[in-house]
């Protein structure tokens, strides 16, 4: 099949003008919301505006679905336990080309669109990078007019809301759809049923054929909610289908008839618990029964939905299934879909094993997002047996046949078999979901060049030998529609004026800015926009936290989940060192700096929460110390989320990407910040390496150990005390953590950080990279003081980000893996 993707197209003529839009808003205010122009508050205006927009969206959705059905297109099905969508109104208005129309219409009604947009709760059905990547990908898929559907879980509560009390993180429930969500459409006609628990019966047929029958102990319903995904240009509107669990009433009736009304309700509650809440652990495998049930629940519902749609066109003829369907597994969370498809094909459709396996291994592809051992999913075989007894049998059979293949390749090599087996033997037998995913897929990809190399070399080297070419790379990307055009309107307008307005569809066009990088007027215009964005963020900081920050200071930003490998504590140690230098020498020469953080910690991750507490305590002290105040400020912005990122990113001067080399698979915040003209201070890790290749060494500040150096130091026996005793600044700063300087009356409140870096062995080599990091900050300081040099660096960063559009990532997937063709939907 030919991998063709249509090239960028212009925004279509807007389908509705200001007058009509205004009327639609008023109509919805009256007849949908039962209020009127005089009574409506911003929330009502938001809902009415969404409803007016949704009319356009649904028309596009209807046309798209009809076109895809009539053309019987091959489609990609993106299975992901997380979709971190953020807000949708502004995005949908932008993608439909109706932003100005809506703005004008509301203005005539005396309402500011910007206030209305602030009413929308974030749809935070994801933890971080992995979930946001899924959201960027479905934006690109629709924009590039590719037939695609996203499948996930309709969590009632998304990622927790973070409050900071006395410096510490407190988790509060997120309720994104408390008062109804205007974008989702319930589709009861497509409800699926999912079985759980029970036992397997073996039956012997006449012809000697063995048939397995699973007698489930419980059945739950999956109710689909569709969120329309509007492509830029507004022609293709794809769907994100999210499954909500509901009681099926199965096995409740006996209880009910016996008068057990209350017990029956309890069963309902259990069924509904499945989609109740998103697990808040980023990059740690929880090992909880409910989590495995969540994974199976949405994978099974999605597969059955895919098969239902296939059968509508092809009946019981399975021969074309792999031509029509490709399923991308976003990490191993949906890997259970592999044995589930085998079960459906072998037990239900009665295909022989080999034919079924042949279909499976031509349908699934798997993306690996991390090398961290604690994030690689393994499930106790006992748990599997209890929840999914038939699937465990199927996994054993897959493994049995695979072991025969291994034996052919490496005869009598038991160590090799132990390494490659899906089943890890030990105290407790475990099912390795990564192995299952590699064995059951036709392609496996990492998410940045270095990461994919390490997947091949360190994680799955034998699989790479066994199946050369199966392991590949697709570097991540971000949608420039949300992450530049929508979040940074003033910069977008300036870019439009300079190089035209088709860059959001063809991001390489930004290259055209590079030739203006030395132009004084353009530099001034570019930095004026940055300054205005900094002012807007400063206002937000003042309003929400009461802290004054100087917009002439360097805005130095680290925004991402809190994790030791991301090394927010390296940043913190350096801030403490600057503070100390300023106290020791009031004339210490540095350009004023504001260090700004945004980060959520997994609720059970003690050290991560301690680091948040420490940042806040250091911030309190520094921000209230008049001796250093004109030079140093520290701000921890609570409740970091997509909509807050959209305000922070356009205002950033310096982007902190300082993970231990080899640990950050790609990173995508690094791309968003650079796209908005921030200069990266970063290690040679993840996509930082590819960013450096694009922008050139003069326009990024790289520091620290390489992957090879990290490995060598570890092998030679890394000892953090060497750095503690040999570096006076490191020693002073770590010792400072033990006093009550930052926590008056509570000495030792911050000591866990020091402990992790010394007795704890400093697993992420913070101390080993400290000096290099400190020097790199001096380079940043000097560069910023040279206004023209800095403006040039900022412009080049924006100009060279073309590679990191998610459209390019999707094009890579299409060509290397999915083999899809775009399908034009007539407007
Ligand atoms: C993340 C990785 O940590 C990032 O480096 C990467 O950019 C993104 O995925 C997207 O590929 N990741 C995550 O957010 N959650 C996981 N469980 C594993 C990886």
Using only C-alpha atoms, the radius of gyration works out to 27 Å
The distinct bound ligands, ions and cofactors come out as:
4-amino-1-beta-D-glucopyranosylpyrimidin-2(1H)-one
Kindly identify the CATH topology of the largest domain.
Rossmann fold
CATH second-level architecture of the largest domain: 3-Layer(aba) Sandwich
- Indicate how many domains the architecture comprises: 3
Main sheet record: 10 strands, mixed
Runs with pLDDT <50, length 5+?
A: 1-12
CATH superfamily of the largest domain: Glycogen Phosphorylase B
In percent, how helical is the residue content? 40-55%
Give the number of helices.
33
- Structural class determined from secondary elements: alpha/beta
Approximately what portion of the residues adopt beta-strand conformation? Answer: 5-15%
Counting DSSP E segments of at least 2 residues, the number of strands comes to 25
Chain-averaged pLDDT:
95
CATH domain class of the largest domain? Alpha Beta
N-to-C span: 26 Å
Describe the global form.
Answer: globular
Structural topology:
Elements: H1 18-31, H2 42-71, E1 75-79, E2 83-86, H3 89-96, H4 99-108, H5 113-117, E3 123-125, H6 129-143, E4 148-153, E5 161-165, E6 168-172, E7 185-186, E8 192-196, E9 199-204, E10 210-215, E11 218-230, E12 237-247, H7 253-257, H8 261-273, H9 289-314, H10 321-324, E13 325-330, H11 337-348, H12 353-360, E14 364-367, E15 378-380, H13 381-387, H14 389-409, H15 414-420, E16 423-424, E17 430-432, H16 433-440, E18 443-446, H17 449-459, H18 461-466, E19 471-473, H19 480-486, H20 489-499, H21 520-545, E20 554-559, H22 568-584, E21 593-598, H23 606-623, E22 632-636, H24 642-648, E23 654-657, H25 669-675, E24 679-682, H26 688-695, E25 701-702, H27 707-715, H28 720-726, H29 728-736, H30 751-757, H31 766-785, H32 787-799, H33 806-818
Helix pairs in contact: 1-2, 1-4, 2-3, 3-19, 6-33, 11-12, 11-14, 13-14, 21-32, 22-23, 22-29, 22-31, 28-29
Residues 127-130, 133, 282-283, 331, 369-370, 375, 447, 476, 664-668, 686 line the site of 4-amino-1-beta-D-glucopyranosylpyrimidin-2(1H)-one (C3B).
